[in-house]
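hiii so my PI (J.) wants the whole complex modelled not just the main chain, which honestly fair. so below is everything: two entries, each one labled with what it is. i double checked the lines twice but i was tired so who knows lol
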Amino acid sequence: MNAIFYRSNQFLKSTIKFILIVLVLLTSINTKAQEENNEQVKRLQRSIFIFTFAQQIQWENSESFNTFKIGVLGNDRTYIDLKGLSQKRKIQNKKVSVSRFNAVKDINDVQLLYVNKQLSFDIDYILSKISGKNILLISEDYNFNSSMINIVNVGNSFEYEINSELLKQENFKVANALKASAVSNSQKWKDLYQATEQSLNEVKKENEQKEKIIKTKEVLIKTKDEAINIQQEKISTQDSKLDTFKLKVSKQNQSINELGDLNLLQQKKFEEKLVLERKLNDTIKAQIKLANKQKEAIESSRLKIDEQTKYLKTQSLEIENNKLILKSKEEKIKRQQTINYLLGFLVLLTIIGGFLMYKNYRTEKKLATALDEKNKAIEENSKLIKAKNEELEQFAYIASHDLKEPLVTISGLITLLQEDYDPLLDETGKKTLEYISKSSDRMKDLVDALLDYSRLGKTKEHTEVNCNELVNTIKSDLANIIERTQSTLNINKLPIVEGSQVELRLLFQNLISNGIKFVKPGVKPIIEINCVKKNDDNDKSKSFWEFSIKDNGIGIAEKHKEKIFSIFQRLHSREEYEGTGIGLAHCKRIIEAHNGRIRLESEVGIGTTFYISIPA
Amino acid sequence: MTKTIECVLLIDDDVATNFYNKRVIDKHEKFKEIVIANSARKALFYLLESSLGKCKKPSIIFLDINMPGMNGWEFLQEYKELDETITHDIKLIMLTTSNSIDDYNKSLTYDLVNDFINKPLSGDLLDNLIETHYNVINNRKII
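here's the output for the full assembly
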């Protein structure tokens, strides 16, 4: 269904009826395919007609165009037909091009214009527009004498009429052949119509017969009318919908108007922008000028660069030469470098060595100074010790001397008392005097021992001492006691040593006396004196004499080995073994003054051996 | 052939020692008179007096070393300075408790010292002295 049919119901109804009739007619005659063929032939015929017209007419300006241009006005299929023919045929020995114009005002630069009345263009308007432009107008189905050349559909063919006057006005020359076959006046034109009317009447009679058939079919149509009515209702509702839609459209129109206002504003802005653009243009021009100047400058510098490249080329050659020289020199330098490295290494080594030596020297110097200082300190200390020792010895001497003096007087006085007053005293008195005398004698001995001890080792006078002689002297000195105790002295060969005669005599005397003294009652003392030369364990170059004095005495317990060398140390009561207890202390002091040592080996009840070592 | 010793001069600061020495000498029949000086200074003074004939001149002097004030050695220094007429016939005996070898050696340096003996004094010692210094002249015995 097409939208135009909705406008009015009546119109719609009649139109539908008409269409239906036509449809029925067409189907009943069954000429559809034939008509189609006829149509195609007519289209080709039309084109040939147009081409023939163009061939038969002379253009005043025919030399000014190389291509023959045909324009078709409106959306006409003839455009396609002409285009197809233009591929095959030429007009007046010129190529043909076909163009289409939608409006009369667009018509331009063509030699021939075709227009069909079906497309409803105003013929007078067209003529006024193309007048004086050497355009030949060929129209179809327009009124008699209204166009330049008008072609008319007659049955399955065409007739044409020529407006000679108009063609003359437009300076076209028409060939006689064309004029002869054209419809020349209006009478001929009418005859043409009458001939067609007769054939139309015949067709009408046929139509009347066919109407009867149609009437029967109308009944059918009525039923369809009802259906259409129903649809009409639907259409009316859609109409209302359309109305609302229209409102919307009006509103949108308003908004479109507003948009138009906006457009105006933007136009103004656009104008402003145009001004700006102009300014920009100016600046661009100035810059172009500047650029041109720079171009010139660049050109000049390019020349310079060219010169410089030449110069560079010569220099690069030189550089190449220099490189060769450099290479040889580099090799030399490398050799020199390795030599330099070696030399540097040597220098470094010597520096390190020197540094180490210097450091060593410094430390040695430091140590030496430290040692010097220490030596000095030791010297001072030894001096101090020496002074102290001397002081101490002096003190011991003076003290013992002063102690001894009154003691001597006491013992003297006791002797006087015993001598002169003995008969006056009873036994207790006599005993008392005896004890006083003994005590003071013992005290005198102790003080003497102390005095001796303080003096020992002071003697610096060392001479060669023949030990055998020395011991023999002692033997004769002790002859009485030896005889009394029935002692035996076995003296082997003894060496000559360096030392103090007096002190060594005291040493041996003490040891021999001890050997005689410390025996169990009833045992006859046997003393053996030996001497051997020995090497120092620590220093092989040094040797010493080792004397041994062996007895068969009571022996000394292990725990007393050290104690017995201390001053006034006694292991026994005076009633058992008399003595001050200073003998071995004296011995130790003497032997140490001679840079020697004294030790003992003893077994209790069997005997003791004293070992004395004196440097040889 | 023994000689009697007329006068003995004892020089010692200790009263008890002097008492004892006097007693020992008294008991000996060869000594007649005993003079005691309890200091070295007094002894020197006595010697000077005796040279003037004011008192009896000693023929033997027993000299102690260890004394307060002027000690034995200092006395010897003064004694050395005296006129030879005074000292030439006097026997000077050091009588000391000291048995120090140093003291003994020091005594030897004085020509005027005739002997060096250790206390206590005894009859035997006196006998010995007379024998040494009056019968056998210039025979000095080392103790």
